[in-house]
Amino acid sequence: MTSPWDAPNGEERPEEKRRGPVVVRRSRLGDPSTTDQRLLDSRGPTDWVHTDPWRVLRIQSEFVEGFGALAEVPRATTVFGSARTAREHPEYEEGVLLGAALARAGSAVITGGGPGTMEAVNRGASEADGLSIGLGIELPFEQGLNPWVDLGVNFRYFFTRKTMFVKYAQAFVCLPGGFGTLDELFESLTLVQTKKVTKFPVVLFGRSYWQGLYDWLRGTMMASGKIGERDLALLHLTDDVDDAVSVVEEAYRAWEETH
């Protein structure tokens, strides 16, 4: 069995599973569960109670490793998107173009490090000689960092990884994606809305994909008073790579003035 992508030189790689910094292949692939699952699942034996102190240390080590690896990263943009986007799909090409444009503008790109749209953005940035960063996560599928990640960190826990997505970026761009992309989108919006992070933009790239959600936010949530005009203004909807990069550039200049 091989991983869902080929190495850049055309050689196939064996299927692998990552448990944080640990990589297992071939006969070591047996356990289908993940560290997050074992932490959050209340079913099964109760002996997990006695292992929580060790989990705390493991969580601490993930923060230390992430902070250490990313502390000297220059200005960066975090880009979210689907792991299921095929290389032949137009959204993949848009991801490549976006990654390259961000790199040429002097921004590193940070993705989840997986296949699909994440791979496309990493590929565009790497091929444009920019800094291509991937923050992987232990899952029962979609494993391993894509070949265009230049600086990669693997995490066991989603909440640790999400901290890194936010801490080292000055803007977010969301390409079409699924539950994971929506989770990251709304967490990002919540952090900006509640001023937990310095205000910076959240770009929704792909009008045909995001327009229905945007209209619902405006026509239902805002109309019923659940959010305000200022909250909706946190989102920028576009189809244009140059427009998306311009929004990121403007936000970075504003960020520089306050730091």
UniProtKB/TrEMBL annotation:
Spell out the Basic and acidic residues composition-biased ranges.
Answer: 10-19
Question: For this protein, what reaction is catalysed?
Answer: N(6)-(dimethylallyl)adenosine 5'-phosphate + H2O = N(6)-dimethylallyladenine + D-ribose 5-phosphate; 9-ribosyl-trans-zeatin 5'-phosphate + H2O = trans-zeatin + D-ribose 5-phosphate
- Give the Gene3D superfamilies listed for this entry: 3.40.50.450
GO terms under biological process? cytokinin biosynthetic process
Q: What class of enzyme is it?
A: hydrolase
Molecular function GO terms recorded: hydrolase activity
**Which EC number applies?**
3.2.2.n1
Entry protein name: Cytokinin riboside 5'-monophosphate phosphoribohydrolase
Q: What is the lineage of its organism?
A: Bacteria, Bacillati, Actinomycetota, Actinomycetes, Pseudonocardiales
